[in-house]
Amino acid sequence: MLPLLSINWNPEPELFNLFGHLPLRYYGLLWGIGILLACIIVQREYRDRKISDEKFSPLFFYCVIGITLGARLGHCLFYQPEYFLNHLWEMILPVKFLPNGEWQWIGYRGLASHGGTLGLIIALWLYCRKTKLHYMDVLDMIAVATPITACCIRLANLMNSEIIGKPTDVPWAFVFERVDMLPRHPAQLYEAIAYFIFFLGMAYLYKLGQKKQRTSSPYYHRSFFFGLCLTEIFTFRFFIEFLKENQVDFEDGMALNMGQWLSIPFILIGIYFMCFYGKTRKHR
């Protein structure tokens, strides 16, 4: 029996189709909005620190490539290695090769946030080698903006009716009609709301730190924001996984699913950088 206030959810994932072959989906649009918002926020941080626009300009390229490649490879290797190791080109190209030799444009159906985070960290290291900026300074600035991008990505998952929650009888349950007719936790929406709140909190701490002397503010030791971002996002991710359906069959027999196991090292790394790394080095 459906809960009295359950929401039937079945939006069309495509906004429109260009030339009949290139669809514009909510998923891609929301990804783009998330990246754009992050760029606007980080550019303001650069200007606060008197870093030139010339050094900011290549940042967008490094972030997009790092996140996209990392997220894609992360999904393929963490969740479906048995398929993609035998279809290597499909790991990189947004197409599916059919048995008759033709191909079908499907977009990137499968992006892992853990892989995207790792890809971004590596891309920023390469960016800092080129621009000679301090690596931890850049990670801190990116960290302030990261939750708003994560929020947009989870809204994109909601529009695609993917990464769904487990059945429930709560009055705000969603019925994902393209999946089944069971009322389920809107886990994507839970995450989107949480990440938006995390962004507001980090923006507040950043502004608070701007008003204080850098030598006296606990919010300005190098790595604080980077550590805080990893800790809060992946701690929430760990616990929200208990309300989600497993994404792949091999997770069914696991005490913790793949998302939870992958979150644990990010949480530990985040705690270290938030609480200890800056304590053993000079403040900025």
From TrEMBL:
Membrane topology annotation: Multi-pass membrane protein
Molecular-function GO terms, alphabetical: phosphatidylglycerol-prolipoprotein diacylglyceryl transferase activity
GO cellular component, one term: plasma membrane
InterPro entries in UniProt: Lgt
EC number: 2.5.1.145
Highest taxon listed in the record's lineage: Bacteria
Residues that span the membrane, as ranges: 24-43, 59-80, 106-126, 138-156, 189-207, 219-240, 260-278
Pfam families: LGT
UniProt KW Transmembrane helix keyword: yes
Keyword Protein transport attributed: no
GO biological process: lipoprotein biosynthetic process
Pathway noted in the entry: Protein modification; lipoprotein biosynthesis (diacylglyceryl transfer)
Residues where a 1,2-diacyl-sn-glycero-3-phospho-(1'-sn-glycerol) binds: 154
Compartments it resides in: Cell membrane
Keywords in alphabetical order: Cell membrane, Lipoprotein, Membrane, Transferase, Transmembrane, Transmembrane helix
Enzyme class: transferase
PANTHER family in alphabetical order: PHOSPHATIDYLGLYCEROL--PROLIPOPROTEIN DIACYLGLYCERYL TRANSFERASE, PROLIPOPROTEIN DIACYLGLYCERYL TRANSFERASE
HAMAP family cross-referenced by the UniProt entry: Lgt
Function: Catalyzes the transfer of the diacylglyceryl group from phosphatidylglycerol to the sulfhydryl group of the N-terminal cysteine of a prolipoprotein, the first step in the formation of mature lipoproteins.
UniProt family annotation: Belongs to the Lgt family.
Protein name: Phosphatidylglycerol--prolipoprotein diacylglyceryl transferase
Organism: Bacteroides fluxus YIT 12057
